[in-house]
Amino acid sequence: MTNSLIVIGAQWGDEGKGKVIDLLTKQAQAVVRFQGGHNAGHTLVINGEKTVLHLIPSGIFNDVKCIIGNGVVLHIPTLFEEIESLGEKGVCLEDNFLISSQCPLILPTHIRLDEAREKALGNKAIGTTGRGIGPAYEDKVGRRTIHLIDLLDPDKFREKLQNLMEYHNFLLKNLYSCETLEIKEVEELWLSFSTKISPFVADTSLVINDLLNKDKKVLFEGAQGSMLDIDHGTYPFVTSSNTVAGAASTGTGVGPGVLNKILGITKAYTTRVGSGPFPTELDDANGKHLADVGVEFGATTGRPRRCGWLDLVALRRAIINNSITHLCLTKLDVLDGLEEINVAVEYELSGKVFPIMPNLNDQGLEKCKPIYKTFKGWKEQTSGIREIEDLPDQAKGFISSIEELLGIKIALVSTGPDRKDIIVLEDIFDG
């Protein structure tokens, strides 16, 4: 059996994946991003210094191979901004960074289309990041996409760019009454990236499989969260890619038989950004506490996150859809000082009770009423605690109860933003 680990968000994103991946990377030889694009915002705090990564895997501060898989849609200007920013922090990517030659490229017209669509939807807008992610995945499915490998063949790139941008400009002008973009300008800018990016381009599927065949530990990094999956999330208020663990196979070119451990990341409460159903959302002093203490603002957009109690009903759906083997509970310290802590254990709708989030449309989910189990809060601070024995009894009881209610082992508990602020209850790679 290979020694692989998939790390996914088990809620609506922003669960703290970056920090956990950074920690676990110390045991791995490679970290691979398998979906999403620069709409991701994985935050690392190392010795008090904050870094937000949008494309490059969160293990980059460790001496491991970092790989962007074919399932990621690539915005090259953002990538080079990120490389430059890391260089200023003393991180060199020359020897340990690879990008799949099959990554679809995000063009300026993708971004323009994304913005135009959200504007056209008005108060029914999805709440996308406006980064062009959706239109880029649409072109991939529509067999129009330009892959990174095409950029290394100037004649082929020019031909494909002409066709794709003519299509995009037609939509911008005739459907959205928006200003079009000059094809020649985009062509010159993107071709200027080709020489600079070529040393990083590889058949990453073969690289990853070779690592696994040599019994190297490989960590697969997801973006966003399971409840934002295009097939299994709260549609249509979802992202445009598959965020569930199965995408680690399709987004990297490794077979599902080599993927054997799945870690789901969940906050000790729940947040989401943008529109969509949110059964446990709070609009009271408790919600304000979670937002203020948790500093709940999107790492990519800066938008305030909606906050609510921990939702085990939604988590059970995520556990099923991902075959989650272990959980990591983040931001336990945000609950410090609350008199009572509620956890949704069931939904009620029209007299029927659901222990697992039902497959309903967004209007149906909005009508679901959470049934809560109430826990006594704790007055002591948990911030920065790194041993389970040092937690308040009520906090330890809260963790044990979550394990029991879900039937899943909590392997890690995060008690602060820094990479050191974590309690390790089980070695996931070797356990």
Strand-helix topology:
Blueprint: E1 4-9, H1 17-24, E2 30-33, E3 42-46, E4 49-53, E5 65-68, H2 76-88, E6 97-100, H3 108-121, H4 133-141, H5 148-151, H6 154-174, H7 183-192, H8 194-197, E7 201-202, H9 204-213, E8 218-221, H10 247-250, E9 262-267, E10 270-272, H11 285-293, E11 306-308, E12 310-311, H12 312-322, E13 326-330, E14 340-349, E15 352-354, H13 362-367, E16 369-376, H14 393-406, E17 409-414, E18 422-424
Helix pairs in contact: 3-4, 3-6
Helical content, roughly?
25-40%
Strand order of the largest sheet: 7-6-5-2-8-1-9-13-17-18
Strand content: 15-25%
Write down the CATH class of the largest domain.
Answer: Alpha Beta
User: Spans of 5+ residues with little confidence (pLDDT < 50)?
Assistant: none
**How many individual β-strands?**
18
Backbone structural class: alpha/beta
CATH architecture of the largest domain: Alpha-Beta Complex
Q: List the domain count as a whole number.
A: 3
Shape: globular
**CATH H-tier superfamily of the largest domain:** Adenylosuccinate Synthetase, subunit A, domain 3
Q: Mean pLDDT, as a whole number?
A: 92
How many helices does DSSP assign?
14
Query: How many strands, which pairing sense, and closed or not: the largest β-sheet?
Result: 10 strands, mixed
Question: What does the radius of gyration come to?
Answer: 22 Å
The N- and C-terminal alpha carbons lie at a distance of 14 Å
CATH fold naming of the largest domain = Adenylosuccinate Synthetase, Chain A, domain 3
